[in-house]
Amino acid sequence: MPLLLDSPLDMHLHLREQEMLRLVAPFSAAQFAGGVVMPNLVEPVDSLARLRAYRTAITAACDPVPFTPYMTLFFREYSREELLAARDAIIGLKLYPAGITTQSEAGVSDFDRIGATVALLEELDIPLLVHGETNGFVMDREHEFLATYQWLAETFPRLRIVMEHITTAEAVALLDRFDNLAATVTLHHLMITLDDVAGGLLQPDLFCKPIAKTPRDREALCAAVFQGHPRLLFGSDSAPHPRHKKECCGCAAGVFSAPVALPMLAQLFEEADCLERLQGFVSTNACAFYRIIPPPKTVELQRKPWRVPEQYGTVRPFLAGRELRWSMPDKQEQS
Ligand code: NCD
Ligand code: ZN
Fold this sequence. Notes:
By secondary structure, the protein is of the alpha/beta class. It has one domain (about 5-335): Metal-dependent hydrolases (TIM Barrel), CATH 3.20.20. Helices cover about 35% and strands about 15% of the residues. Bound molecules: N-carbamoyl-L-aspartate and zinc ion.
Protein backbone atom coordinates (compact mmCIF):
# COMPACT_ATOMS: atom_id res chain seq x y z
CA MET A 1 0.00 0.00 0.00
CA PRO A 2 1.42 3.44 -0.82
CA LEU A 3 1.92 5.99 1.92
CA LEU A 4 0.21 9.32 1.28
CA LEU A 5 1.29 12.52 2.97
CA ASP A 6 -0.57 15.82 2.83
CA SER A 7 1.65 18.77 2.01
CA PRO A 8 4.86 17.58 3.67
CA LEU A 9 7.23 20.42 4.56
CA ASP A 10 10.95 20.65 5.15
CA MET A 11 11.28 23.42 7.72
CA HIS A 12 15.08 23.94 7.39
CA LEU A 13 16.73 23.65 4.02
CA HIS A 14 19.85 24.92 2.22
CA LEU A 15 19.29 25.26 -1.51
CA ARG A 16 22.41 27.26 -2.44
CA GLU A 17 22.61 29.12 -5.78
CA GLN A 18 23.28 28.67 -9.48
CA GLU A 19 24.26 25.18 -10.59
CA MET A 20 24.04 23.69 -7.10
CA LEU A 21 20.54 25.13 -6.68
CA ARG A 22 19.47 23.57 -9.97
CA LEU A 23 20.96 20.22 -8.92
CA VAL A 24 19.42 20.00 -5.44
CA ALA A 25 16.09 21.87 -5.56
CA PRO A 26 14.27 19.19 -7.62
CA PHE A 27 14.79 16.63 -4.80
CA SER A 28 12.98 18.86 -2.34
CA ALA A 29 10.27 19.75 -4.84
CA ALA A 30 9.64 16.06 -5.55
CA GLN A 31 9.12 15.24 -1.89
CA PHE A 32 7.77 18.38 -0.26
CA ALA A 33 5.06 20.98 -0.80
CA GLY A 34 7.41 23.63 0.51
CA GLY A 35 10.39 24.33 2.68
CA VAL A 36 12.00 26.98 4.83
CA VAL A 37 14.96 28.24 2.83
CA MET A 38 18.06 29.30 4.72
CA PRO A 39 19.64 32.67 3.86
CA ASN A 40 23.34 31.82 4.35
CA LEU A 41 24.39 32.32 0.75
CA VAL A 42 27.93 33.51 0.01
CA GLU A 43 26.42 36.98 0.20
CA PRO A 44 23.74 36.61 2.88
CA VAL A 45 20.10 37.20 1.96
CA ASP A 46 19.60 40.30 4.10
CA SER A 47 17.54 42.58 1.90
CA LEU A 48 14.13 42.30 0.32
CA ALA A 49 15.59 42.75 -3.15
CA ARG A 50 18.00 39.83 -2.74
CA LEU A 51 15.28 37.74 -1.17
CA ARG A 52 12.92 38.28 -4.09
CA ALA A 53 15.60 37.44 -6.64
CA TYR A 54 16.51 34.29 -4.71
CA ARG A 55 12.88 33.23 -4.49
CA THR A 56 12.51 33.59 -8.25
CA ALA A 57 15.64 31.49 -8.85
CA ILE A 58 14.33 28.75 -6.55
CA THR A 59 10.96 28.58 -8.26
CA ALA A 60 12.70 28.39 -11.65
CA ALA A 61 14.95 25.57 -10.40
CA CYS A 62 11.90 23.55 -9.27
CA ASP A 63 9.83 24.24 -12.37
CA PRO A 64 7.48 22.63 -13.38
CA VAL A 65 7.03 20.98 -9.97
CA PRO A 66 5.20 23.19 -7.46
CA PHE A 67 7.22 23.99 -4.35
CA THR A 68 6.65 26.88 -1.97
CA PRO A 69 9.89 28.45 -0.74
CA TYR A 70 9.24 29.93 2.69
CA MET A 71 11.90 32.60 2.69
CA THR A 72 14.05 33.81 5.59
CA LEU A 73 16.11 36.95 5.97
CA PHE A 74 19.58 36.75 7.51
CA PHE A 75 19.45 38.35 10.96
CA ARG A 76 21.07 41.77 11.37
CA GLU A 77 19.78 44.95 12.97
CA TYR A 78 16.68 45.87 10.94
CA SER A 79 14.48 48.95 11.21
CA ARG A 80 10.75 48.77 11.77
CA GLU A 81 10.18 49.97 8.19
CA GLU A 82 12.40 47.25 6.75
CA LEU A 83 10.63 44.54 8.71
CA LEU A 84 7.18 45.88 7.88
CA ALA A 85 8.07 45.86 4.20
CA ALA A 86 9.46 42.32 4.41
CA ARG A 87 6.81 40.79 6.64
CA ASP A 88 4.58 39.30 3.92
CA ALA A 89 7.53 37.91 1.97
CA ILE A 90 9.18 35.99 4.83
CA ILE A 91 8.42 33.25 7.31
CA GLY A 92 11.00 34.55 9.75
CA LEU A 93 14.49 35.89 10.42
CA LYS A 94 17.36 33.43 10.77
CA LEU A 95 19.93 34.26 13.40
CA TYR A 96 23.43 32.82 13.20
CA PRO A 97 26.09 33.49 15.81
CA ALA A 98 29.01 34.94 13.80
CA GLY A 99 31.29 32.29 12.28
CA ILE A 100 29.57 29.34 13.94
CA THR A 101 28.83 27.42 10.74
CA THR A 102 29.03 27.56 6.94
CA GLN A 103 28.76 31.12 5.59
CA SER A 104 27.76 32.72 8.88
CA GLU A 105 30.57 35.27 9.17
CA ALA A 106 28.06 38.14 8.96
CA GLY A 107 26.12 36.75 11.93
CA VAL A 108 25.69 38.13 15.44
CA SER A 109 28.87 38.75 17.40
CA ASP A 110 27.31 40.75 20.25
CA PHE A 111 24.09 39.36 21.69
CA ASP A 112 23.70 42.47 23.86
CA ARG A 113 22.79 44.34 20.70
CA ILE A 114 20.02 42.14 19.28
CA GLY A 115 17.26 43.26 21.68
CA ALA A 116 15.80 46.08 19.60
CA THR A 117 15.38 43.97 16.46
CA VAL A 118 14.05 41.00 18.44
CA ALA A 119 11.49 43.28 20.14
CA LEU A 120 10.33 44.38 16.69
CA LEU A 121 9.94 40.75 15.63
CA GLU A 122 7.77 40.14 18.66
CA GLU A 123 5.67 43.22 17.98
CA LEU A 124 5.26 42.38 14.28
CA ASP A 125 4.70 38.67 15.01
CA ILE A 126 7.59 37.51 12.85
CA PRO A 127 9.18 34.23 14.03
CA LEU A 128 12.86 34.10 14.98
CA LEU A 129 14.80 31.06 13.79
CA VAL A 130 18.05 30.44 15.61
CA HIS A 131 21.21 28.44 15.05
CA GLY A 132 21.73 27.82 18.76
CA GLU A 133 25.42 27.20 19.33
CA THR A 134 28.14 29.08 21.21
CA ASN A 135 31.78 28.91 20.16
CA GLY A 136 32.69 26.77 23.18
CA PHE A 137 33.82 23.14 23.21
CA VAL A 138 32.16 21.51 20.23
CA MET A 139 30.11 18.96 22.20
CA ASP A 140 28.90 21.66 24.64
CA ARG A 141 27.91 24.38 22.19
CA GLU A 142 24.19 23.67 22.14
CA HIS A 143 24.16 23.16 25.91
CA GLU A 144 25.84 26.54 26.43
CA PHE A 145 23.39 28.28 24.11
CA LEU A 146 20.30 27.06 25.98
CA ALA A 147 20.63 30.02 28.38
CA THR A 148 20.20 32.36 25.42
CA TYR A 149 17.09 30.48 24.28
CA GLN A 150 15.72 30.76 27.77
CA TRP A 151 16.46 34.49 27.89
CA LEU A 152 14.74 34.99 24.54
CA ALA A 153 11.69 32.92 25.51
CA GLU A 154 11.28 34.74 28.84
CA THR A 155 12.06 38.27 27.65
CA PHE A 156 9.88 38.05 24.54
CA PRO A 157 6.97 35.83 25.60
CA ARG A 158 4.89 36.49 22.48
CA LEU A 159 7.79 35.90 20.09
CA ARG A 160 7.73 32.55 18.32
CA ILE A 161 11.25 31.09 18.48
CA VAL A 162 12.47 28.07 16.56
CA MET A 163 15.48 26.23 17.95
CA GLU A 164 17.00 24.94 14.75
CA HIS A 165 18.33 21.41 14.35
CA ILE A 166 18.42 20.47 18.04
CA THR A 167 20.70 17.59 18.97
CA THR A 168 20.51 17.16 22.73
CA ALA A 169 18.21 15.69 25.36
CA GLU A 170 18.44 19.00 27.22
CA ALA A 171 17.12 20.98 24.27
CA VAL A 172 14.13 18.66 24.07
CA ALA A 173 13.49 19.30 27.76
CA LEU A 174 13.71 23.09 27.34
CA LEU A 175 10.98 22.95 24.72
CA ASP A 176 8.52 21.82 27.37
CA ARG A 177 9.23 24.82 29.59
CA PHE A 178 8.13 27.50 27.11
CA ASP A 179 5.11 27.50 24.80
CA ASN A 180 6.76 30.00 22.49
CA LEU A 181 9.56 27.57 21.60
CA ALA A 182 9.49 25.01 18.82
CA ALA A 183 12.39 23.05 17.36
CA THR A 184 13.40 21.46 14.11
CA VAL A 185 14.99 18.02 14.06
CA THR A 186 17.01 16.65 11.16
CA LEU A 187 16.91 13.15 9.73
CA HIS A 188 20.59 12.56 10.39
CA HIS A 189 20.40 13.54 14.05
CA LEU A 190 17.71 10.87 14.50
CA MET A 191 20.13 8.33 13.06
CA ILE A 192 23.75 9.06 13.95
CA THR A 193 25.93 9.91 16.94
CA LEU A 194 29.47 11.27 17.13
CA ASP A 195 30.64 7.67 16.86
CA ASP A 196 29.32 7.45 13.32
CA VAL A 197 31.18 10.65 12.38
CA ALA A 198 34.53 10.07 14.03
CA GLY A 199 34.49 6.81 15.97
CA GLY A 200 36.11 4.85 13.17
CA LEU A 201 37.44 6.19 9.90
CA LEU A 202 36.41 9.83 9.63
CA GLN A 203 33.18 10.27 7.66
CA PRO A 204 33.09 13.68 5.99
CA ASP A 205 29.55 13.08 4.68
CA LEU A 206 28.32 13.03 8.29
CA PHE A 207 30.22 16.07 9.49
CA CYS A 208 27.82 18.91 10.17
CA LYS A 209 26.96 21.67 12.62
CA PRO A 210 25.73 21.01 15.17
CA ILE A 211 27.91 17.90 15.43
CA ALA A 212 26.01 14.67 16.20
CA LYS A 213 26.04 13.98 19.95
CA THR A 214 25.77 11.00 22.30
CA PRO A 215 23.57 7.89 22.05
CA ARG A 216 21.52 9.26 24.97
CA ASP A 217 20.87 12.49 23.08
CA ARG A 218 19.89 10.66 19.92
CA GLU A 219 17.52 8.44 21.89
CA ALA A 220 15.87 11.47 23.52
CA LEU A 221 15.32 13.08 20.12
CA CYS A 222 13.87 9.87 18.69
CA ALA A 223 11.60 9.34 21.68
CA ALA A 224 10.14 12.84 21.51
CA VAL A 225 9.71 12.76 17.72
CA PHE A 226 8.20 9.28 17.61
CA GLN A 227 5.86 10.09 20.49
CA GLY A 228 4.55 12.94 18.38
CA HIS A 229 5.71 16.01 20.30
CA PRO A 230 3.57 18.79 18.78
CA ARG A 231 6.37 21.37 18.68
CA LEU A 232 8.98 19.22 16.99
CA LEU A 233 9.11 19.95 13.28
CA PHE A 234 11.00 18.16 10.56
CA GLY A 235 13.81 20.27 9.10
CA SER A 236 16.32 18.29 7.08
CA ASP A 237 19.12 20.88 7.25
CA SER A 238 20.08 19.32 3.94
CA ALA A 239 23.28 21.22 3.19
CA PRO A 240 25.07 20.16 -0.01
CA HIS A 241 28.79 20.71 -0.54
CA PRO A 242 30.72 19.39 -3.54
CA ARG A 243 32.95 16.39 -2.80
CA HIS A 244 36.14 18.38 -3.17
CA LYS A 245 35.01 20.59 -0.26
CA LYS A 246 34.17 17.58 1.92
CA GLU A 247 36.98 15.16 1.11
CA CYS A 248 39.91 17.45 1.84
CA CYS A 249 41.77 19.15 4.67
CA GLY A 250 39.19 21.47 6.21
CA CYS A 251 36.00 19.52 5.47
CA ALA A 252 32.94 21.75 5.06
CA ALA A 253 30.06 21.14 7.50
CA GLY A 254 26.77 19.89 6.10
CA VAL A 255 24.89 16.66 5.32
CA PHE A 256 23.15 16.43 1.95
CA SER A 257 20.01 14.52 2.87
CA ALA A 258 17.41 15.98 0.49
CA PRO A 259 17.31 12.95 -1.88
CA VAL A 260 16.57 10.49 0.96
CA ALA A 261 14.56 12.61 3.38
CA LEU A 262 11.01 11.31 3.15
CA PRO A 263 11.79 7.68 2.24
CA MET A 264 14.17 7.34 5.19
CA LEU A 265 11.80 9.11 7.57
CA ALA A 266 9.03 6.69 6.57
CA GLN A 267 11.37 3.80 7.31
CA LEU A 268 12.33 5.18 10.72
CA PHE A 269 8.72 5.84 11.72
CA GLU A 270 7.70 2.40 10.50
CA GLU A 271 10.51 0.75 12.47
CA ALA A 272 9.34 2.67 15.54
CA ASP A 273 5.81 1.44 14.82
CA CYS A 274 4.38 4.95 14.55
CA LEU A 275 3.99 5.58 10.84
CA GLU A 276 0.72 7.38 11.61
CA ARG A 277 2.72 10.12 13.37
CA LEU A 278 4.82 11.00 10.33
CA GLN A 279 2.19 13.45 9.02
CA GLY A 280 2.42 15.49 12.21
CA PHE A 281 6.20 15.63 12.15
CA VAL A 282 6.48 16.59 8.49
CA SER A 283 3.55 18.97 8.23
CA THR A 284 0.81 19.45 10.82
CA ASN A 285 3.11 20.56 13.65
CA ALA A 286 4.84 23.12 11.44
CA CYS A 287 1.56 24.51 10.11
CA ALA A 288 0.26 24.98 13.64
CA PHE A 289 3.35 26.71 15.04
CA TYR A 290 4.09 28.88 12.03
CA ARG A 291 0.39 29.42 11.28
CA ILE A 292 0.79 28.61 7.61
CA ILE A 293 -1.51 26.85 5.19
CA PRO A 294 0.64 25.25 2.51
CA PRO A 295 -0.81 24.70 -0.93
CA PRO A 296 -2.43 21.27 -1.10
CA LYS A 297 -0.04 18.67 -2.51
CA THR A 298 -0.33 14.96 -1.89
CA VAL A 299 3.01 13.17 -1.90
CA GLU A 300 3.07 9.43 -2.39
CA LEU A 301 5.73 7.00 -1.24
CA GLN A 302 5.79 3.44 -2.40
CA ARG A 303 7.04 0.40 -0.58
CA LYS A 304 9.65 -0.44 -3.17
CA PRO A 305 13.32 -0.73 -2.27
CA TRP A 306 15.94 1.38 -4.02
CA ARG A 307 19.62 1.95 -3.60
CA VAL A 308 20.79 5.47 -2.87
CA PRO A 309 23.25 6.54 -5.59
CA GLU A 310 26.89 7.13 -4.62
CA GLN A 311 26.77 10.62 -6.06
CA TYR A 312 24.41 13.21 -7.52
CA GLY A 313 26.38 15.55 -9.74
CA THR A 314 29.29 16.72 -7.59
CA VAL A 315 27.68 15.79 -4.25
CA ARG A 316 27.59 12.60 -2.20
CA PRO A 317 24.23 12.14 -0.51
CA PHE A 318 23.56 10.98 3.03
CA LEU A 319 23.19 7.16 3.04
CA ALA A 320 24.99 6.79 -0.31
CA GLY A 321 24.94 3.16 -1.37
CA ARG A 322 22.36 2.12 1.25
CA GLU A 323 19.18 0.30 0.30
CA LEU A 324 16.02 2.02 1.56
CA ARG A 325 12.63 0.39 1.85
CA TRP A 326 10.41 3.29 0.74
CA SER A 327 10.85 5.23 -2.48
CA MET A 328 9.38 8.09 -4.44
CA PRO A 329 7.46 6.76 -7.45
CA ASP A 330 9.83 6.43 -10.46
CA LYS A 331 11.73 9.62 -9.80
CA GLN A 332 14.94 9.16 -7.95
CA GLU A 333 16.32 5.94 -9.36
CA GLN A 334 17.12 7.57 -12.65
CA SER A 335 19.17 10.52 -11.39
C1 NCD B 1 24.94 24.33 6.96
C2 NCD B 1 25.45 24.78 5.58
O1 NCD B 1 26.30 24.08 5.01
O2 NCD B 1 24.98 25.81 5.09
N1 NCD B 1 25.87 23.39 7.50
C3 NCD B 1 25.63 22.48 8.47
O3 NCD B 1 26.58 21.82 8.90
N2 NCD B 1 24.44 22.29 8.95
C4 NCD B 1 24.74 25.52 7.84
C5 NCD B 1 23.99 25.20 9.13
O4 NCD B 1 22.79 25.01 9.13
O5 NCD B 1 24.65 25.16 10.18
ZN1 ZN C 1 21.17 24.68 8.31
